[in-house]
Amino acid sequence: MKTSTIDSLITARTLYDEATGLVASGDRHMCSAGLVMLQDALEIVVLAILVERGVDEQKALESKGFDELLGELKIVGINVPKSGTLKALNKQRVITKHYGQLAEPATVQTYAEAAELAIDSIVSQVLGKDFREILLTDLMDGGEAREFLTQAATLIDEEHFFDGLIAIRKAIFVEIEHEYAINKWANTDAN
Predict the structure, then answer these.
(1) pLDDT, tens only, 58-87
(2) Are 145 and 174 in contact (CB under 8 A)?
(3) 40 in Cβ contact with 165 (< 8 Å)
(4) Environment class of 137 (CB within 10 Å of its CB; exposed 0-12, middle 13-18, buried 19+)
(5) What's the pTM value of the predicted model, to 2 decimals?
(6) CATH number (domain holding residue 109)
(7) Counted domains in the chain
(8) Domain of 131?
(9) Sign of torsion, CA 104 109 112 114?
(10) Which residues contact 130 (CB under 8 A, 6 or more apart)?
(11) In angstroms, how far apart are the furthest CA atoms of the chain?
């Protein structure tokens, strides 16, 4: 996986997580703000996947609109579920962002469900991972520290925060601090 893909997907997930909180509020203003963030997250995911597939090396993606980017996914053989709903989401984002019109919470919730399905499907098809499984640890070489950090992420997702912190601490130790451990001097001759 390309570094730029990981960076983009983590940025997208941050936006997505914030957006879902706003969408869940049921407030028209918060839902409208969530809609804008949700579409931005979706567009970043689409761009990241196209970059991962190397489409950016053949075509100028920055000049394409959202509908065209979805079309590029289809051209490279990536199925995009709910693409019609995603195009409507983009149109609603334009109305909300550029004309200041509020979106209805129930409509935004429908868009959020379609975006979640599409993101999960797109990422899974190309990377073989769930959107939530993309972590900065993917940038690390394999090894014990990476295993501890992956374990920590799982524990934190399961709200086992203390155990997650212990796993993080273990990763720091095996990656950095093991060279400074003094335990090997515990049973030495005083002379």
Answers:
(1) 888 888 899 999 999 999 999 999 999 999
(2) yes
(3) no
(4) middle
(5) 0.77
(6) 1.20.120.330
(7) 2
(8) 3-135
(9) negative
(10) 120, 123, 124
(11) 81
